[in-house]
Design brief:
Blueprint (H helix, E strand, L loop, with lengths): L6 E2 L2 H10 L4 E4 L2 E4 L5 H18 L6 E4 L4 E5 L2 E3 L3 E5 L11 E2 L4 E5 L5 H12 L7 E5 L5 E7 L5 E7 L16 H4 L10
Parallel strand pairs: 5-8, 9-10
Antiparallel strand pairs: 1-3, 2-3, 2-6, 4-7, 5-6, 7-9, 10-11, 11-12
């Protein structure tokens, strides 16, 4: 992820540009940010989370869909992101006819890295929390066994919980799943990976 915007565009220009681009870009309030490739730990954590959630959610009624970072999520007309993992239970709703822009995630997961942590926390977190369908939002560290869970409360506020240590479990009530940190961080080495 680039720390500073690369271009300024209207939402319509961004969507046309993005659909023609061979690389991914996120859009925040009129500015485009190029997405960078992931390092080893990030890739391993991402693959583990997708596999764990897929295995826990397959054959559910209503069905739950687990999306990779290739699925764009529309927050509103001014913000479009590519979360590392997105889950929808029930009918997935898309903006427009392209089926490339999800609008009703129940769970969004971002894996933090030194180059994206400030961006994820300050720019993305408050915007994600505006999505009406979103019930839980996870920030997953890649340099230690540490997951931060934000859960929407009945009054619309967000409850924060830090889940620390490989012997811990992440309770995801939004999708009725309980991955362990030991499984999320399988094969991950906690050392200078960046």
């Amino acid at each position: 992820m680039s720390a500073s915007p690369n271009y300024s565009m209207t939402p319509e220009e961004y969507l046309a540009f993005e659909r023609a681009s061979e690389t991914k870009h996120e859009y925040i309030d009129g500015e485009i940010y190029a997405m960078a490739g992931a390092k080893r730990n990030h890739s391993l954590i991402n693959a583990s989370i997708i596999a764990l959630l897929y295995n826990q959610l397959q054959r559910r009624i209503p069905p739950c869909l687990v999306y990779t970072s290739d699925m764009r999520v529309k927050v509103d007309i001014s913000n479009y992101f590519y979360p590392d993992v997105t889950v929808v239970c029930g009918d997935a709703l898309y903006d427009e006819t392209e089926l490339d822009m999800l609008i009703n995630p129940a769970l969004v997961i971002e894996i933090l890295s030194p180059s994206t942590e400030v961006y994820d926390r300050r720019k993305k977190t408050p915007r994600y929390q505006k999505i009406e369908s979103l019930q839980e939002y996870l920030l997953v560290a890649q340099d230690e066994a540490w997951v931060e869970r934000y859960r929407r409360q009945p009054d619309g506020t967000w409850q924060y919980l830090a889940i620390i240590g490989l012997d811990s479990t992440v309770e995801l009530t939004s999708i009725n799943a309980t991955p362990t940190l030991a499984d999320i961080y399988e094969n991950v080495t906690f050392e200078a990976d960046e």
